[in-house]
Amino acid sequence: MTKPVKKPLVLAVDDEPAVLEIFQTILEEKFEVITAAGGQDALSSVEQEKVQLVFLDIKLPDMDGLQVLRKIKEYDPDLSVIVATAVDSVRMAVDAMNSGACDYITKPFDVDELMAVAEKALEREKLLKEVAYLRSQEEKIRFENIVGKSVKMQEVFGLLEKVIKNDTTIYISGESGTGKELIARAIHYNSERRDKPFVPINCAAIPESLMESELFGHEKGAFTDAARQKPGLFELANEGTLFLDEISTLRFDLQAKLLRVLEEKKFKRIGGSRTIELDVRILSATNIDLREAVQKGNFRADLYYRLNIVPVYLPPLRERRGDIVFLADHFLHIYNQKFRKRITSVSERALEVLEQYDWPGNVRELKNLIERIVVLKDSGAITEKDLPFEVFLKNSAEAATLFQGGLKEACNDFERKYIEAVLNKVGGSQVKAAQILGLHRNGLANKMKNLGLK
Length: 454
Prior knowledge:
The chain is an alpha/beta fold and 454 residues long. The protein has 4 domains: 9-136, 3-Layer(aba) Sandwich (Rossmann fold), CATH 3.40.50; 147-315, 3-Layer(aba) Sandwich (Rossmann fold); 324-394, Helicase, Ruva Protein, domain 3 (Orthogonal Bundle); 405-454, Homeodomain-like (Arc Repressor Mutant, subunit A). Helix content is 47%, strand content 15%. A 5-stranded parallel β-sheet has the order 2-1-3-4-5, with helices on both faces. A 5-stranded parallel β-sheet has the order 7-10-13-6-14. Strands 8-9 form a two-stranded antiparallel ribbon. α1 links the parallel β1 and β2. α13 crosses α15 (362-376) and α17 (407-425) packs across α18 (430-437). The radius of gyration is 31 Å and the shape is elongated. The model is unreliable at 135-140 (pLDDT under 50).
């Protein structure tokens, strides 16, 4: 069964019943029309209803029309307002335009002109929302643009291709820096909701006291600091996708409320009485084992099962080392363009070092490293000399050992590990190792003796 198209909601404000009837008659074919006979009623309607366009008479019995206009714009700066004025009040119409009105019409109304002005205003509102949305988003991401040719990543892509268009709830797990939000964006932009908003929220980054308001919004006066109505992220993501990152940090009582919203597909703003219907796809992610959190009583089991309909695990970079060469080239291309550099490539030796490192910060750490090198380097290829010393250490345990002694001990430890790695690479040949290290063979032999290397 085809879902009926909802008409845009228009508010007509005038103290003459005959004029309001004209608005109803002319606009009702393409718009849902509600009316108000005065300024206070108009402001109440704007606060309580999801009004998309206002026709506002400049002369009202209880309030000055310009005052009503300014209050509407304070409440919602993007709401389109068209002022209606008599022919002899054009100067007031100009004042209204300066106060934020998007257009004006004169009485008596011409039917075609009224419809044209209304459609133009709604088109303007649509464009404003699209511009704001596009500015808040990165370039649309598709799976073919995500670098991952390893077997494990191909398994991830294969799973997602099976479920991506089914509008099902997906739970993404993996260590920090593995690209959970990148995958969430790709899911959205490859789904049927691609033309609607993608709204991400990092639950760990928002104070617990503000989280409920961020998710569900609030009405004016709902609490001490609620000076105006605020739509929540659920409302902003309606018809699109809401990505709840680090959901394990969500307060226990909010977990219960979130579960209820997901089950009932409706909610109310804090302090509100109007029920808001919800049509949104939920993606969630954590960098911890959520099953373990459930077992420890730190996360609701019923919410976990509701979110974990399709689980997706993103492997850490150390489990997909074959992707490092492709990721390094990918990030080099990005930052060459961004910083207008011409760094030619990543050398074979530098890639070998990168592939041996354990990458505790995963893909994000590699991305930041390539950015830093491109910023600092002028030309040529990235070599092992451009790499920071920590990537020559296999893992963070080695790094911790390195920082336990003084500078001399640290330098000796680093030299020992570096020479050992080069010797392993060349099968123990001191001649080849000396060439790579830029040393005479006898110089290498002396260093090995001093460092206790056989």
